Each structure stands twice: as C-alpha cells, then as structure tokens.
Amino acid sequence: xxxxxxxxxxxxxxxxxxxAYTWHGAALEGSTVSWTLAGIFAVLGVASxxxxxxxxxxxxxxxxxxxxxxxLGAEVAYNVYALVGFPASPNLADIGWFAxxxxxxxxxxxxxxxxxxARRVAALERLPLLVATxxxxxxxxxxxxxxxxxxxxxxxxxxxxxxxxxxxPVVMVQALVGGAVSLxxxxxxxxxxxxxxVEAIAYVLWTPQLLDGSYTAGASPLDALWTLGLLLVGxxxxxxxxxxxxxxxxxxxxxALPAATLAVLIGxxxxxxxxxxxxxxxxxxxxxxxxxxxxxxLRALVLARExxxxxxxxxxxxxxxxxxxxxxxxxxxxxxxxxxxACPDGYxxxxxxxxxxxxxxxADELLSRPFAELVHPDDRERTVAHAGSVSRGGPPLVGxxxxxxxxxxxxxxxxxxxxxxxxxxxxxxxxxxxxxxRQRAALARAHADLEIKAVELERSNADLEQFAYIASHxxxxxxxxxxxxxxxxxxxxxxxxxxxxxxxxxYAVDGANRMRALIDDLLAFSRAxxxxxxxxxxxxxxxxxxxxxxxxxxxxERQAVVSVDGELPVVLGIxxxxxxxxxxxxxxxxKFCDATPRIDVSAVSDAGSWRFSVADNGIGIDAAxxxxxxxxxxxxxxxxxxxxxxxGLSITKKIVERHGGAIxxxxxxxxxxVFHFTLPALAEEAAA
Amino acid sequence: xxxxxxxxVEDNPGDVDLTRESLEEARVVNELHVxxxxxQALAFLRREPPFEDAPRPGIVLLDLNLPRKSGKEVLxxxxxxxxxxxxxxxxxxxxxxxxxxFRSYDLGANAFVTKPVAFPDFLDAMRSLQGFWLQFVRLxxxx
Lengths: 688, 143
What we know:
The structure holds two protein chains of two kinds. Helices cover about 65% and strands about 10% of the residues of chain A. Chain A contains 21 helices and twelve strands. The longest helix of chain A has about 60 residues, at about 435-495. In chain B, helix 1 crosses helix 5 (about 120-135) and helix 2 (about 40-45) runs parallel beside helix 3. Chain B starts with a strand and ends in an 8-residue tail after the last helix.
C-alpha cells in the first residue's frame, strides 16, 4: 500500500510540475523533474532499508532517511524558486542540500560496523582527512572564487557544496580502509558509496562553473549526475542488507588515507607554487597542511598512549599468569602423589618429582620412552586400552590400578585417576599403593585364617557338646543298673551281712549317687545355651521368682533372705535357662554360707545391656580363683565340706555367654561374693 | 483283687528283674509277661506263634531301645491296629530328654515313665503305675 501510495505521490508531483512549468511558459525543465523523482525514489529506498535494517543499523538508516527527506524538501523549495524567482544563496534549498550531505556523512559512519576502539581512532583520523580534502577542494576552486562576480555569501555557499559532499565518500572509504568490513558483502553500502561519489564529483565539477557563471540549470550534463547519484542511494536502500561483522582492527592502513591526502595537498601546493597560483589558493593549501599535520600528530599521541596502556595491561596480566603458573608448578613439584601429563602417542610430556622418588628413574629416562614399556606385561593391554579410552574423551578413570617397573626391577602398584584435558593431553594422578595392597592382602589372609579358625572352633565346640551328650547319655544306662541294684542291695540286705559289707554297700550307693549327679549335670551342661531362635522376651523378675520357688525347701531350711533392689528388667532369652542361672547362683550363695544366708539381687542398665548382680554374705572367693570357678569340674572345696559336681557355674557361664552376655565375680564390700552377669537389653531400649 | 496283666517289653534282664522287684515291693498285684524284642511283643499281642495262648494284657510297658523292632515301631503298629489300639501303652525311657523327643512323634503313648537311676525312685514310678492303673479301671475287656 505504501509503495503504491509513494508511486502515486511521485506521479502526481511529476504531473503537477509538468503543469506548473507549462503554465509558467518556460521550457520544460527535464532536470528538475528527474531530480524530484530521483529524490522521491531515494526517500522510498532509504525508508524501506530502515524498515528492514537490523537493530544496530536502524539508527544509521534513520539519519540517512532524514537527509533524504531534507534533500527532497530542498528540491521542492528549488522547484518553487524556479517558478517564483530565486532568492540569494544560501537559501532554503541550499540549506536542505547541505543538511543532506551532513546527515549522509554521519549516517555512513553509523552504518559501517567497527569496534569501539576503532571508532575512537577513526574519529581522530576523520577530522584531518576532512580538513585535507576540504582544503584541496577549496584550493581547486580558489582562483574561480577569487575572480567570481557573485556576492561573497554566494561564493562561500558555492564552495561549501563540494566540501560537504566530498566528505561522504571520503569518510566511507576511510572507514572501510580502516579495517571495518569487507565492502563487497554489502550491496547496499556499495550503492550508497557509489551514489555519494557521483554526487561529490558532480559538485566538485559544478562549483567552478557556478562561480564563473558558466553553469545553466537544465542545460548542463552535470544535471544527470545528481539524478544518478540519488538513484544509486535509493537503490542502496532497496538492496539486500547482510548483517555485517567488523573485522579485527587494522591500524596499519587506517592512517594511509589521511597521509596520502596530506601528500596530495603538499603536491598540489608545490604545483601551485611553481605555476604561480593565487595567494588565497596557496594559503588554503598551507592552512590545510598545517591542520592535517597537527591532527595526525594528535592521532599519533592518542594511539601511543593507548598502546602504552595496552602494554601495561598485558604486562600485568603476564605477571599474574606467571605467578599462577609458579604456584601450580610448586604444587605440582611438592606433591607426594605422582602427577603426570601424557600425550595420546604414549609418551609422558610432564612429570613431577614423585615419579623419580617412587620408581627411581630420572625424569629424562621416564620421558624418553613410551610409558607402556614400564607397565607390567600383564597389565599393559588394559592400561593401553584405558589410556586410549580416556584420550578419546571417554569417562575419567578413577581408581584404576596397574604395576610399573621400578629401576631396581621390582614392580610398584599405582592407583590412577586420570582425565583428558581440553588440549587433548591426558592428565593423571597416581599414588603408590604397593604397601596398601600388601597390607590389604595380609589383612585378607589373616581374616580368612581367622574365619577358618572360627569354623574349626565351632566344629570342635559342637563335637565336644556332642561328646558330652553322648557320654552322659550312654553312661547313664549302665549307671542305672549299678545304682539300682546297689540300692536294692541296700534295701534288702542291710543288716543281714556283716558291718563291713554294710559299709561297702554304703560306699557303693554313695559313689553311684555322685556319679548320677555328675552325669546329670554334664548332660545339663551339654544342653545349656539352647538355640537363639527360641528366644523370647522374658521378665527377669518372674524368672527369679520361679527359681526361688524351686529352691523353696532349701531357702526355708537355711532361713535364707533374698531381697530384690528395685525392678528387674525384661530381657530377651530362654526362660528356663535364665531360671537356671538364678537358681544356680542363689543355690551356690546358700550352699557356700556358714551363717544365715542373705542374698541381694539387683540390675542396672549399662551401655545397651543389663548388668545383674547377685550378692551374698557367704564364705567368699579368693580373687586368685575368681576365674577358675567357672571351669567345668573345678572345685575349691572338698566334697565332704560342700557337696556338688563343680559343673553348676560352668553351666551358668555357658548360658550367659550363649545369651550374648558375660559373667564374673568379685568380693563383696564386707564379706561374701558378688556375681555379676550381663544380658543384652531389648532392641528398643538399646536404641533409646 | 484280680491281678493286673502286664506285658513288659524289655531286652535288659537287669531291668526286667528290677521291674519285677519294684512291682513286688510296691505290692502291685500283677501277672507279668516279658518279651525281649519288638517283634515278639507284637506276636504276643496278636497271639501269633509261639504265643497262640497268650492272654490279652491289660497294660503294656514298652522300652524304646529294643532289638529287631524298636519301641516306636511297636507303638505305631499297636495304634494302627483296631484290636490293639485300646490297650494302654506306657513308654519307659532312659532320660527325660528322650521322653521329650519321643513325645514329638505323637504316636499315641498313654504315658511316659523315665527309668530312674536309683531304685527308690523306680519304686515310686511303679507305685504311680498302680495309681494310673486304677484310673483306667474300666479298661476295655475288663468291664
């Protein structure tokens, strides 16, 4: 819609101008029509470019659009002047066209991408360049201006045209030479540059003609150039706009253009001086040369300062880097771990001192041969495979172990962590684990030995129990015969034989009784301890009561007093066996007491278990025998004094130990003995 | 009082005599028949040769360790035989432990008597046997 509208506006304005000129009676001025149309085309093209431009170029195109609109406005004013008569220059049309030149100059610096640093220096270079070209252009027309019949303001206005318009291509070329972009990548910029060049050339040629009065609008071949220039600028607007990337700054050539212009200025000055040109032309050139030289010197100063800052910064960065490197190198060297960098070709490229310490080779020896040569032949294949996998970017190696041959021919076990770096080298850290492995192996062996011993012990224990069971069981049978008949003899024949026979029968009965007690106890011992799976929660207070009930006769006979301190806990165990523990300990306490037995039972919680104590006021146990009393068949007193088989405490000990506890005794505070035994607390208590 | 007819299955002559002595001393009025192995015991009970004329015992005292056929087997066969099932069988064991083991087989023994090591104890056992007998006064075949 916009384009149709624009075309309609162009056609309408062309028609309007045709009618106006016809009505005015003047000859059709083809040039003004073509200029107007070219101006409209330029505005449309630049507007289109602005719409499509990438964000960073939009501003440049906006400025160019403003310039183009100013140009069209100036053209409209010119057309009006053509009808109503021209006021003195500089008039509105002149100002519009000057504005176009200035806007376009600013726009092209925006359109050409550059780094901030390049822009800074380019601004410094642009100024001498513009001064130089301006001086040159002015000098070229200086004689014409000096001799012109026009009033001074018109002469200055005439000189301003080439000076302003030449700045557009000059600035553009300089930006391109200054290393910004490759021009051929942007048809838009090529078109704009060509357009600006054509316009600048037109004005450079036009100014002397205007000054000496030889130019007639509509009759000069120069008129076509402006149309062409504007069409090119407009075409640039419609051309594709690739995104442009600025290149690295190239300072080598950026000063070439100002320098070359300076040289040209000097050359022209020489030619003018020799040919005797006017003073004003020479003064213009000399002034230009002085200004350019001063500006170039300033540029040199700025660049030098920039360079110096850059060098300082670089030096600081280098120092910091060297510092870091030294730190890393120090760590690398003092590490007790063996650190290395290896090339995927199979050689070490960097090693720390730990390598020589562990393996005994010099660093050169290690670096000069493929590391696989040092690896134990049995480990070589997997080492190479793993190193290959790591260097190809596989997962980092952790805890890989292999053997390296030391200089003395022994092999050291190394444990590796390694990974590939971004530089493709393998970074590795190894630790000598030879001693660790040896210890681990020794530990494993010791462990295995211990396990075998434990199994043996278990078997021998089981054998012993089996033996005790069979022995007591099978002994019981013949004993029963002996015992029964000795008793029968005793019952039937006591008093019928002589006194000696009675005595002998008595001995036999006594022996048989003791043997029976022994065998019963031995059998009980062999069966004590039970199996762990039948354990249940047992109230030890109730168990104690049960054991007291079964000892009732003895307790009454001896008038024994049993007291319980506080509550007795609930424990895990086999009820009948725990009853036997209490029964044995209390029976012992009564048995080994010459006075009235007083027995005290208590329990305290102690580190996940319960410690029970049974204290008596008995005859006490010599500390030297505190261990012995728990051994089977061990007795401390004669049978005549205290009867018994010597198995009771062994059974007690066995039960307690099978329950996961311990039993021991110690002298009581005043007299007597305290037996302590522990039983594991219930799981929730232990946890609490 | 009619004598109790007892079949004692026991291979140890010492135990046979001991049983006889204690029954006598306990004044148990009895008629004691003795066989020395399991096969004979079953033959006696079933009146098979050479026990064609054997009386039906009122009670069987059965040792466990028997030659040829163990007490366990005898008991099992007795309890499987409808004609013999109702005769009370009392198992004589050497130890309490053995009684426990045996009880687990649950073969239908009516009682266990642990053979005591001392004579007086055995005497007590035999006396209790009489008490046991009186409780079973209405035994099959004797009503």
